[in-house]
Request: fold
Amino acid sequence: YLRSLGRDCVTTREPGGSPVAEQLREVILSGVAASLGPAAEAVLFSAARIDHIAQTIAPALARGAFVICDRFADSTRAYQGAQGNVERSLIDALEKVAVGRYRPDLTLILDLPAETGLARANKRRADAKADRFEAEDISFHQGLRKAFLEIASREPDRCVVINAVQSPDDVAKDIRAAVT
Reply:
C-alpha cells in the first residue's frame, strides 16, 4: 500500500533482519537457547535487535524510508517479560539499550484467538517442525495474546489492534486505515 503511494519502504522481521540477527534467529527459534531461560533469550533477542537496527533499520530511516517490521521490542515484552516472567526492569533496560531512539511510531497488533493463530501457523508450516515458540502449549499463546492486548491498552497512541479473524481483504483495509 505504501509503495503504491510512492513511498520508499523496507520490510524486515525479528528476530532477524540482518545477517548477524538471522544467525541469532536460528539459535533462538531452534530452541538451543531455551535451556538458558527467558532472561538469556531476552538478551539474545536484544543482541539481534541491536544489529538489526544498526544494519537495516537505522540506514533505512536515515534515507527517509518507512520501515515495516514483523515483530519488534513488544514481542520481547510479551514473550520473555509477561510469559517468561523476566523482571520488567531488565526488559526495560534491554529495550533502552537495544532500541534507544528507534521506537516505532505505529504498532499494529493483529489480534485473533490463540487457537486460530496456531492453526494458521500449522497450515503455513506444513510438515516442517514447529519452532521454539510455536511448540508451546495453548495457555502460553493465550497469555501472549493477553500481554499484547495489555501493551496496546497502555499505549493507545502508538498501538492499533486489528481484528485478524476477518478476511485478509478486511484486515488489509483496517491496516491501510490505521497507517493512513
The helical segments are 19-30, 38-62, 73-83, 88-99, 114-125, 138-154, 168-179.
